[in-house]
Amino acid sequence: MKAAVVLLLTLLVPAYHTEAQCIIDNVVDLKVQAAISSIVSSTLGKAKLLCQDVSARGALVSCPAGSKPMGCACGMGCGSWDIRSDSTCHCQCSGIDWTSARCCKIGLE
Q1: Torsion angle, alpha carbons of 70, 74, 78, 82, to 10
Q2: Distances in Å between the alpha carbon of 28 and those of 31, 34, 40, 98, 99?
Q3: What is the rounded CA–CA span in Å between residue 92 and residue 75?
Q4: Closest Cα to residue 55, out of 101, 104, 103?
Q5: pLDDT in tens, 35-64
Q6: Distance between terminal CA atoms of the chain?
Q7: How far is CA 51 from CA 42, 65, 80, 91, 103, in A?
């Protein structure tokens, strides 16, 4: 009988300790997630899309440092354009007299 009680205790004590540790881990995880979520949502609340138009003569126009082209427009009725190097609008028709770009970046208030 003593052996059965000792065996039962040796099985239950670590199981109880492990369960308590899991509960503590879960509480800590929830607190960390809540803190991160709070920081992220307060930062995203201050985020703002800042845009400006830039234009140049010819078939190429580059956005200012830190901003990316969201769209391009070309003179001479050309509707064919592409974005090069993630920062430059290029009009593909020959003889283009002007090119413009809508350049945007994410800023904080």
Answers
A1: -40
A2: 5, 10, 18, 58, 55
A3: 11
A4: 101
A5: 888 777 777 778 899 999 999 999 999 999
A6: 72
A7: 22, 12, 22, 20, 5
Q: What's the DSSP call for residue 72? A: E
C-alpha–C-alpha distance, residues 45 and 104, integer Å: 18
CB 108 within 8 A of CB 48: yes
Contact (CB, 8 A) for 63 and 101: yes
Distance CA 108, CA 19 (A): 44
pTM of the entire structure? 0.60
